[in-house]
Design a protein that fits this description.
Blueprint (H helix, E strand, L loop, with lengths): L2 H17 L15 H11 L4 H8 L8 H12 L2 H20 L5 H13 L5 H14 L16 H23 L1
Helix pairs in contact: 2-3, 2-5, 3-4, 6-7, 7-8
Length: 176
């Protein structure tokens, strides 16, 4: 190999090292995460949607357009450090739940389904259970813009039951 070829290879290796994205280890504390990014990750782990996390962490005013909030929330959550932190927090949460012998997600889902389908339960409890099922199964679009929904509770309940029934049928069919 000539001296020129060796120099070219060395230059390529240096460029590759310089341009390589850092590999983040979820078991180590993250370096360079801002306080607001940390707050976004913590709020997300509490179950808030991405837009609401962004609103609270970045103190977004009420006059800010929802489209702007949604666009900025996507940018924050696409940040590799924020993604890694959310993954790290999720792993810690799973470990904690395993240590305390918490009910499995399937047990929780079964209990919520039981409440939603039990006519003896209060209507408010049944609606809350249906709302939780909708969030768990991803029926909500996470935009956080539900204030403009003018439907009656019975209409929402019927629609959620229909969608959940179809989804549960698909899940049961895939488990067979």
């Amino acid at each position: 190999m000539t001296h020129t070829q060796q120099a070219t290879q060395a230059t390529r290796r240096k460029r590759a090292q310089r341009d390589a994205k850092p590999v983040l280890d979820p078991d180590k504390p993250l370096q360079g995460l801002t306080a607001k990014q940390e707050r976004v990750a913590q709020l997300f782990m509490r179950g808030l949607d991405k837009s609401e996390c962004y609103r609270r962490a970045f103190n977004v005013g009420s006059d800010t357009k929802p489209e702007t909030v949604n666009r900025n929330a996507v940018k924050v959550f696409n940040n590799i450090k924020v993604k890694a932190r959310v993954d790290q927090l999720q792993k810690q949460k799973e470990q904690h739940l395993a240590e305390i012998d918490a009910p499995s997600p399937d047990d929780v889902l079964s209990q919520i389904q039981r409440i939603a389908n039990d006519p003896k339960e209060k209507t408010a409890d049944r609606l809350r259970a249906l709302d939780r099922l909708a969030k768990i199964t991803g029926l909500y679009d996470n935009s956080g813009d539900t204030d403009d929904d003018k439907r009656e509770p019975e209409e929402v309940e019927a629609q959620l039951k229909q969608k959940l029934g179809a989804m549960l049928a698909r899940i049961e069919a895939s488990q067979d």
